[in-house]
């Protein structure tokens, strides 16, 4: 997670011209955290509002699962006002969500649902494989 503007958050940003959503998601994570990632499946979509130049803006954000390839030089992108970037245990994440945005809580919940489903699929596949060998 990243700590920006006195809140725990997840990396995100805006599309560059002619950039696809998944490419932008990957680029933003790599820029904001100084890591290398591989884009996996789409996780969910959220909507949130913010104010820019005294106007309300509605922003759609598409979230993806990603696999970290390199994180030895992980550090916050300070020019984006990111003060800290770090890996957290599930317990630390839920504690951090007490000082976060509602949309980030939704993304985290979706991630853990997805992860639980994937683990159940793997267990079922393993069980089927064991039955075939009996």
Describe the structure.
- The longest helix is centred in the C-terminal third of the chain and has 32 residues.
- The strands form two sheets. A three-stranded antiparallel β-sheet has the order 2-1-5, with no helix packed on it. A two-stranded antiparallel ribbon has the order 3-4.
- It is globular.
- The protein has one domain: Nucleoside Triphosphate Pyrophosphohydrolase, CATH 3.90.79.
- The protein is built from three helices and five strands; from the N terminus they run E-E-H-E-E-E-H-H.
- The model has no long low-confidence stretch (mean pLDDT 91).
- With 134 residues, the protein is of the alpha+beta class.
Brief synopsis:
The protein has 134 residues and is α+β, with helices and mostly antiparallel strands. The protein is built from three helices and five strands, in the order ββαβββαα.
Topology at a glance:
Blueprint: E1 2-4, E2 7-9, H1 21-33, E3 36-52, E4 55-70, E5 82-85, H2 90-96, H3 102-133
Antiparallel strand pairs: 1-2, 1-5, 3-4
Descriptors:
single chain; three-stranded antiparallel sheet; alpha+beta; two-stranded antiparallel sheet; 3 helices; Nucleoside Triphosphate Pyrophosphohydrolase; about 130 residues
Described by its quaternary structure, the protein is single chain
Q: Order of strands in the sheet with the most strands? A: 2-1-5
- The mean pLDDT is 91
Which second-level CATH architecture applies? Alpha-Beta Complex
What is the element string, with H for helices and E for strands? EEHEEEHH
> Looking at the structure, what is the overall shape?
globular
CATH class: Alpha Beta
| Proportion of residues in β-strands | 25-35%
* Helical content band: 25-40%
| Measured distance between first and last alpha carbons | 45 Å
The total count of strands amounts to 5
Q: Which fold name is given in CATH as the topology?
A: Nucleoside Triphosphate Pyrophosphohydrolase
Computed over alpha carbons, the radius of gyration is: 17 Å
The chain-level structural class is: alpha+beta
Helical stretch count? 3
Number of domains: 1
Per CATH, the superfamily is Nucleoside Triphosphate Pyrophosphohydrolase
């Amino acid at each position: 997670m990243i700590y920006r503007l006195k809140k725990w958050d997840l990396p995100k940003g805006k599309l560059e011209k002619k950039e696809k959503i998944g490419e932008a998601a990957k680029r933003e994570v790599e820029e904001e955290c100084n890591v290398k990632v591989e884009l996996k499946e789409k996780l969910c979509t959220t909507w949130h509002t913010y104010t820019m130049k005294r106007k309300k803006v509605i922003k759609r954000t598409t979230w993806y699962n990603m696999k970290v390839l390199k994180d030895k030089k992980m550090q916050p992108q300070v020019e984006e006002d990111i003060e800290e970037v770090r890996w957290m245990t599930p317990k630390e994440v839920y504690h951090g969500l007490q000082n976060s945005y509602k949309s980030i809580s939704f993304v985290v919940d979706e991630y853990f649902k997805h992860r639980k489903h994937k683990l159940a699929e793997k267990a079922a596949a393993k069980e089927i494989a064991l039955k075939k060998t009996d």
